[in-house]
Design brief:
Length: 200
C-alpha cells in the first residue's frame, strides 16, 4: 500500500482499515525517520481526521464509519511506529494526540480493565473478556512538529494508549485476554473495573 495516498485531501474510510488476519497487524512497526517527513505528517493528519469524522454523527453516516478513539499506522497498512488518538476528557473536552515513535517509559503497578471489553476498528466481531491494562502510563514520543514530548495518561486515555502501542508491536487486544477463562483477572495485582474509579 502506497503511503502517498494519505495526503491532505484523502478521506480515510472503513475500506482503508486493515482487518484482523492481515499480516500487517502482526508486524512490529519500524521507527519513523526524524525529522518528520511531510508524507508522514500528512498520513497522521489523515488518520486524525478519520477519528474526528468517525465521532461526528453526520460525517460517520455519510462515510459509513465505525466510531473510533485511536488508530495506529498499521491499521491503515503503514508499517511505521505512529498512532493517533482523539478522546473526550472527564469534562467532555476533546483530547487529541498524534504521536511518533511512542515508548512507555514507566507505568503504575495498579491496573484497570473495561468491563465491556475493548473494541477495535480492525475487528468486526464482538470479543468477550477482560483486557488488563496499567492504570497510568508515562510516554515519551515525538509530536507532529517533531518535538520530543513526555506525556502522562491515566484511566481510559491510558487504556487507549496501551491498545495503540500494542498494535505497533503486532499485538491485538484479545491476546491479553485469559484464553481459558476470558473474565479471569490476573492474580496478586491491584486491578479493578475502570468505572469504579469515578469520583476518586
Amino acid at each position: 500500500m502506497s503511503i502517498t495516498k494519505y495526503n491532505a485531501d484523502y478521506i480515510i474510510t472503513m475500506d482503508d482499515i486493515v482487518r484482523e488476519g492481515h499480516p500487517v497487524l502482526r508486524t512490529v512497526t519500524e521507527p519513523v525517520e526524524l525529522p518528520l517527513q511531510e508524507k508522514d505528517r500528512a498520513a497522521l493528519q489523515c488518520m486524525m481526521l478519520f477519528l474526528k469524522n468517525s465521532q461526528d454523527p453526520e460525517m460517520s453516516a455519510k462515510y459509513k464509519l465505525r466510531p473510533g478513539v485511536g488508530l495506529s499506522a498499521n491499521q491503515v497498512g503503514l508499517t511505521q511506529r505512529m498512532f493517533v488518538m482523539y478522546v473526550k476528557d472527564e469534562k467532555g473536552n476533546p483530547v487529541e494526540h498524534a504521536l511518533v515513535n511512542p515508548k512507555i517509559i514507566s507505568h503504575s503497578v495498579s491496573m484497570v480493565y473495561l468491563p465491556e471489553s475493548e473494541g477495535c476498528l480492525s475487528v468486526d466481531r464482538p470479543v468477550d473478556g477482560f483486557v488488563p491494562r496499567y492504570e497510568k502510563v508515562k510516554l515519551k514520543a515525538y509530536d507532529l512538529s517533531g518535538k520530543e514530548v513526555v506525556l502522562r495518561f491515566k484511566g481510559y486515555q491510558a487504556i487507549v494508549v496501551q491498545h495503540e502501542i500494542d498494535h505497533l508491536d503486532g499485538i491485538m487486544f484479545y491476546d491479553r485476554i485469559n484464553q481459558t477463562h476470558p473474565f479471569k483477572l490476573p492474580q496478586g495485582v491491584d486491578i479493578r473495573s475502570l468505572y469504579e474509579q469515578k469520583g476518586n
